[in-house]
Design goal:
single chain; Lipocalin; about 230 residues; mainly beta; elongated; about 40% strand
Length: about 230
């Protein structure tokens, strides 16, 4: 803090010296004294709770879509030589899409694993149990892709990762994206290996009676979200 009293003190000392019979050397002028350091202004910082970096901007020209009614996510697998079918009744889908720049798109899907339905209660309970989907411990499966790529056949696929039963694996998901009256429609099929994700513990680890391949088929209407 600046010393505002130093000049007044110097004046008083000079007056006292002029009235004295003896003339001792005048004290060092206050101006010669080392001035007090001037406080510096601290650098501006972001307020508490502000993000360290701004969120990534949506690619120019891209639009965001959300899942509409009538979406389906079905699965099928082989058991004892017969094909079994089921579906997940509860899931959500988000899509960022620009037809002119597919590589900048993104896809996010969250599935409630306990919503599985095979039209057979015993089979539902078995699939939901700890040796297979273990829905109590792993209530959701999640797929996220941050880009799309062209397939060799000219089609499109999402390039992302699937997390199922606590295991995350790279997964390319083939997609057909069509314009519909209310927005877009996603559709396609992909096959995953259930044992890659630990869906099959104990006796279910064997493929003697239940196949390793699980086919997923999806058809999802999407509406513009903004």
């Amino acid at each position: 803090m600046t010393n505002y009293f130093a000049p007044l003190t110097a004046v008083a000392v000079l007056l006292a010296s002029a009235c004295s019979a003896a003339e001792p050397p005048a004290p060092k002028p206050a101006a010669a004294q080392k001035p007090a350091p001037t406080p510096t202004t601290p650098p501006t910082t972001a307020p508490t709770g502000a993000p360290a970096t701004a969120p990534a901007a949506r690619p120019a020209g891209a639009a965001h879509y959300r899942q509409a009614g009538g979406a389906s996510l079905a699965f099928s697998f082989m058991q004892a030589g017969a094909e079994n079918h089921g579906s997940f009744r509860q899931f959500t889908t988000g899509l960022t899409w620009d037809e002119k720049n597919p590589a900048a798109g993104s896809l996010d899907v969250t599935v409630q694993t306990a919503s599985l339905e095979t039209q057979d209660k015993d089979r539902n309970d078995t699939l939901a149990g700890a040796d297979l989907f273990d829905v109590k411990k792993f209530p959701t499966a999640h797929y996220t892709a941050n880009s799309f790529a062209k397939r060799a056949d000219g089609g499109l696929e999402a390039v992302g990762k699937l997390t199922l039963r606590g295991v995350t694996k790279n997964l390319r998901v083939p997609l057909t994206i069509r314009t519909s009256g209310s927005g877009l429609e996603l559709s396609g099929e992909v096959t995953i290996k259930r044992l890659d994700f630990g869906v099959g513990q104990g006796d279910w680890n064997s493929t003697e009676w239940v196949g390793d391949d699980v086919k997923l088929a999806y058809k999802v209407p999407m509406t513009r979200a903004d």
